[in-house]
Design goal:
Layout: H1 7-10, H2 16-23, E1 26-28, E2 34-36, E3 49-54, H3 61-73, H4 76-81, E4 84-90, H5 97-104, E5 110-112, H6 117-121, H7 142-156, E6 170-175, E7 178-184, H8 194-201
Length: 205
């Protein structure tokens, strides 16, 4: 598994063969019900786009702040106005999905790839090395973020079920069953900034 990625590779679209393969891999909802990944972006209206956000483990405080920022700046109504649906995918056990959605105030569907096969095959990076400075979507300091993550882990009753701690995620945008754009995280706080997502989606304010 990759532990680093160049700027060029970060935005490189996977091959069609890879996309066909990952499309058949099952993801799970909060009840453990399995559906293939491709069900999120195939058989949809021709004008609809599907933005899929792969987050880190279910106790990652930085990713939780990212979902909170998305819910505030890109709520479902705003996304619907530009024919876009958003789905979140994590890497932990299904039993943690309900609590994750509640903590983040997520108005979007949440699934998990607890096999982490989709992450790996799409070339998403596994590293705990941080970046210099925090992204715009975070509002907590490192210490506060770490303490909150540990607290949520303990209080969940399932502290070892959140997913691989070093596995990072990324963002993918589909339309008509085709991947149009993607971005892979280079480090644990490298989700695509909200302003850039708006540009990608053509949202002008």
């Amino acid at each position: 598994m990759a532990t680093s990625i160049t700027e060029e590779k970060r935005r490189e679209l996977p091959s069609q063969a890879t996309l066909d393969e990952v499309g058949e891999i099952n993801i799970k909802d909060k009840d453990g019900k399995e559906v293939p990944l491709k069900s999120l972006y195939t058989g949809k209206p021709a004008n609809e786009r599907q933005l899929i956000i792969f987050v880190r483990h279910f106790f990652c405080g930085s990713c939780e702040q990212y979902i909170e920022a998305l819910a505030k700046d890109l709520p479902p109504a705003k996304l619907s106005a530009v024919d876009t649906a958003l789905t979140i995918i994590g890497s932990g056990e299904p039993i943690l999905i309900e609590g994750y959605a509640k903590r983040t105030g997520s108005p979007y569907p949440v699934y998990t790839d607890n096999s982490v096969q989709i992450y790996k095959k799409l070339g998403m990076v596994s590293t705990l090395k941080g970046s210099m400075g925090g992204p715009k979507y975070t509002h907590k300091g490192f210490f506060k973020n770490t303490i909150d993550s540990m607290w949520n882990s303990v209080m969940s009753g399932h502290p070892l079920s959140s997913g691989p701690p070093a596995q990072n995620g990324g963002e993918l945008l589909f339309q008509n069953g085709e991947l149009k754009w993607c971005s892979r995280m280079r480090n644990p706080t490298d989700h695509t900034e909200i302003d850039e997502l708006k540009e990608v989606l053509g949202i002008k304010e």
